[in-house]
Amino acid sequence: xxxxxxxxxxxxxxxxxKIPCYAHEGxxxxxxxxxxxxxxxxxxxxxxxxxIAMEIPVGHAGLIWEKSGLAMNHGxxxxxxxxxxxxxxxxxxxxxxxSQEEYILEKGHKVAQMIIQKVxxxxxxxxxxxxxxxxxxxxxxxxxx
Length: 145
Known about the structure:
Layout: E1 9-12, E2 30-33, E3 38-40, E4 45-49, E5 52-55, E6 60-66, H1 68-74, E7 76-79, E8 82-84, E9 92-97, E10 103-105, E11 110-118
Antiparallel strand pairs: 1-5, 2-11, 3-10, 4-9, 6-8, 6-11, 7-9
């Protein structure tokens, strides 16, 4: 069976921007890099520019996730993070510093990672009732510890 690999077209919107790449063969996510130096004070949030725009294949989306080292070691978490296939502007990474220390994100450093994920659109149908299930309306914590 023949498989065809999807192509992710990337355009630099800043001359010195780094192109997203996989750090290791077989990685699930592409690394994204900061286009500028940003100082994150405690509790502060920023939109971090990457200096790149992209053409995500139709039927897919780019899902932005934090780098585990930045999150665990420095408390930097991503905010939001869905890039639609129809978006052609600069990819920005919303981030917040949840630690108790200031963090300096240097220009060119890894800021986040992006998974290119196949998506399926659905037809929304407003109804009066939903099918009953064993869980029902029980929310957070309803499945135990």
